[in-house]
TrEMBL record, chains A, B:
Keywords: DNA-binding, Transcription, Transcription regulation. Transmembrane segments: none annotated. It comes from the Bacteria. Residues 3-57 form the HTH lacI-type domain. It holds the Pfam family Peripla_BP_3. This is LacI family transcriptional regulator. It comes from Paractinoplanes durhamensis.
Length: 330, 330
DNA sequence: TTGAAAGCGCTACCAT
DNA sequence: ATGGTAGCGCTTTCAA
């Protein structure tokens, strides 16, 4: 059995209460006693049982993190950010991968919510209504999604999209396709919304193709439709989809960027590793994770603040040398 | 406050004990009572507090998972496998990313070990001795590492290496470089060991270059040394390193696979997405995660089985069309 | 400044 | 088949 507070108390010759105090409210105990207790605790390798503590304090010291798909490199980056910040604040992280399944999401939330102080929902796929029911039960912060009166961390998509379209139009592109991600994705809806606004303002014609799974395969699947539209440039829902497009274009002998330019979203690490490198819009990833934890801790500290905190993090177009983007051929 | 067992007991008109029994040992309670209790529990949305339960049963229903770096796509795949299997068995997963830091690893293990039934250490970087101290405290299963008397899941590296070398020698390569990963990595030491054995048997000359970080940057850094050795083929510690090599070779105008062939390890998803695609040795990833959980559950169920269970999972050379491997030029 | 006692939510044991 | 009681490890009164 692990060493408990009683063991420490006995060895240090004090009561359990004093051990607690020495460790969590040091100023309330005599310096001499305090040091002795701390030394004994260290010697014995005592670490308080957080579950037992949680039973009393109502705080578990854990947070839950849900992501749709760890296989999409975007999410591991966010997770790393969450981990880093959480551990700094001495929180441990429950992780669940929902496999892009809104139903699984809800089940996992229920299961996790009992053992955590709060939940970080990253790009949740469930509906607004479903989200609402959860928000009622447990402190929740959204990453990559917004909902009225719920704290959230989101990227400045409108600005990112503006940068993307400016870049393309500066290179002479006038007809641009957008390969959409999952219909249930807020990120996708926001991209579409921003894109329409920005394209209209820039006088570019926007061609929207159907929704695809936000993975490599989605891009592969959409490539031929994109070519059929005769556009000179295509914006993909994310980098994985962009890579899928690239792959299928190459397979069909369509030169990138010679005949068609491809622009991605996310700036996953891999986008700089391929050749040609991907031109893409960098979304904050680690940073979103960290900011999400910050908001959650803040929410836990002062539960009845209003309105809900909302952080928007900047985005940045990344233009790389020898990339999949070129001026429009005349 | 959440609904507790007392609430259910009161509403159902029974004692707390009966509620427990109705829910966890249904056969011990009268069918009528059982149904009533279950209905009330469902109506009230009662879910037992796992922390409180764990206090008594000594079981938390949680497992801890440590990985060195989520940014390496190999690990998210393992994590997905762990998640999937764990949730099937109604376990929740604590995840910690150690950033390739052996010291951080130990700290995180200590912190997590109190709130989990067992630990899955994936490619741990700490020393054998450090590992030993942990194994004494908590049930541990190793993934991608071996240690005497500790259950583990590992890939059949020797066989994978044999496939790799056979492939290269069949294509005429006689001098092959190996770009090593972290010195603290068991996976790296095993690769080296297998490689020496297999290369000797195949009559190939092996040129070992220094250790690099197991990331894209590591490959970039090693590329020039590799070229200086004059080998016609190079095996990288993993796919990320292989991509780094590829990138730097290309930058220096060295044709791949024209002048030098590159072979990776892992078969991360991305290796099929790039162009040229990566020829690589597939290591079981999701499967290792699942197997690791299986072993851990088994260990928890029968703590004093011996000798330690040990599973070796098959590896497979993946040869792709238009890949970074070619016959040796004469 | 310290200790004793109560109790968090739950389950195990001993009654009945 | 069911209830009462004790106790898991810890913190928080309350009293001294």
């Amino acid at each position: 059995m692990a060493v408990t507070i009683k063991d420490v108390a006995r060895v240090a010759g004090v009561s359990a209460s004093t051990v607690t105090r020495a460790l969590t409210m040091p100023e309330l105990v005599h310096p001499e006693t305090r040091e002795r207790v701390k030394r004994v605790a260290a010697d014995l390798g005592y670490h308080p049982n957080r579950a037992a503590r949680g039973l009393i304090t109502g705080r578990t010291g854990n947070i839950g993190l849900l992501v749709p798909d760890l296989a999409n490199p975007f999410f591991p980056s966010v997770v790393k950010g969450v981990q880093a910040r959480a551990h700094e604040a001495d929180y441990a992280v429950f992780l669940a991968d929902t496999d892009e399944d809104a139903t699984a999401e809800i089940g996992l939330v229920r299961k996790l919510s009992k053992q955590v102080d709060g939940l970080l929902l990253c790009s949740p796929r469930m509906s607004d209504d479903e989200l609402r029911t959860i928000v009622g039960d447990t402190p929740v912060v959204l990453v990559n999604r917004r909902l009225a009166r719920v704290p959230s961390v989101t990227p400045e998509l409108l600005d990112g999209m503006r940068q993307a379209i400016s870049h393309l139009t500066a290179l002479g592109h006038r007809r641009v396709a957008y390969v959409a991600g999952p219909r249930s994705s807020w990120a996708n809806r926001e991209r579409v919304r921003s894109l329409r606004t920005v394209a209209a303002a820039a006088g570019a014609e926007l061609v929207e193709t159907g929704n695809v799974t936000p993975q490599f395969e989605g891009g592969v699947a959409a490539a031929d439709q994109v070519l059929a539209t005769g556009v000179t440039a295509v914006i993909a829902y994310n980098d994985l989809v962009a890579l899928g497009l690239l792959n299928r274009f190459t397979a069909r002998g369509v030169a990138v960027p010679g005949e068609v330019s491809v622009l991605g979203f996310d700036d996953i690490p891999l986008s700089a590793m391929v050749h040609p490198a991907l031109t893409t819009v960098d979304l904050p990833k680690e940073q979103s994770g960290r900011a999400g934890v910050d908001l959650l801790l803040q929410l836990l500290a002062e539960p009845d603040r209003s309105p809900a905190a909302r952080r928007e993090l900047p985005t940045q177009l990344i233009v790389r040398a020898s990339t999949g983007i070129a001026p429009r051929r005349v």
